[in-house]
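Researcher: Structure for this, please.
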Amino acid sequence: MTIVYAHRGAAAELPENTLPSFRRALELGADALETDVHLTADDEIVAVHDAVGDRVAGIQRSVRSVTLRELQSWDAGYSFVAAGGVRPFMGRGFRIPSLAELLSELPAIRLNIDLKSEEPRLVERFIEVVRHHGAEARVVAASFRATTLAHLRARGFGGETSLGRREFIACWLMPSWLRRSRPPGTRAQIPTRSGPIPLATRATLAKLHRIGLAVDFWTINDPDEARRLVELGADGIMTDDPARIVPAVRGAGG
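Model: Predicted structure, token format:
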């Protein structure tokens, strides 16, 4: 079955990376949630994509420079911009959750978590929080940063990990007959193309599957594209719009 990941929750409908957005995605049938994490000044891990609060909350402060308490006073409803530049969710109580809140509020849900910085303390705290909640088996750790993933694996993280950008390129380009070991992670999480080069092809999927990798594509909001990826054999699809993509994936047999 193709996994549908709700990218930052039901971000097409509600402010991204908030508990109402995550819960709405699950109501719509998403199999898993995707989010991003940063550290606060008091070493709390929070579910927010950007390192600075201007786009998310209209605040010109870095996440790392404020405490969890201050961060959760920000209005995360600011992040949702509707047609005409209207912000319909401002002042309605949307806030940035901590990772601990997500794991406790959604205790049976699979999470794909993108660690956004190379700071070793982020990895240390991430492992502490996930283990405290007994959640390694349901958390996939991702990062674009190879050093972050290497540190995570070296510290014995027991959950799945995606490939970093350079790790994926090595797996994708290396001829299968030259490979002497399994990939460092378990999932390749990739766009459908890199510049002019298509990645969502039967040949790419077959090669990555052959070396033991599951393949998840991001960020897919077109139902026709979602159906095409299911037919190609995609293991997962990340979307901002589970209301449209869940039915497309299920209807395509995923």
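Researcher: Any notable elements?
Model: The longest strand covers residues 32-39. Residues 81 and 87 are 5 Å apart (CA to CA).
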